[in-house]
Amino acid sequence: QVQLVESGGGLVQAGGSLRLSCAASGRTFSSSTMGWFRQAPGKERKFVACISSSGSSTYYADSVKGRFTISRDNAKNTVYLQMSSLKPEDTAVYYCAAGTYYGAIATGYTYWGQGTQVTVSS
User: Cα separation of 81 and 8, whole Å?
Assistant: First the structure.
């Protein structure tokens, strides 16, 4: 089992950058696929990016491809989401998640953090 805590959210102007962190506790972190999802008010939770347990494979939603980078440091039990060229439509609560299966499906993830707010002003 893992416990996840996101941080790094805040207010940023369009075109700016922000880095989110997700600190994990638990001995299974290094063997877990990690993902980032986001949810805007009144909208469904959507996939953003995921990374394999070793960090060798990554996958991104088309809406963030080329702008966001997911990475992990297993020695620190931390996964990151580096966001650049931010747009107002990126505004959402961002959640990190851990699971057994690699992919964009939310049900493939077992553990979820509480989320961190990202607001991008126009």
Answer: 10
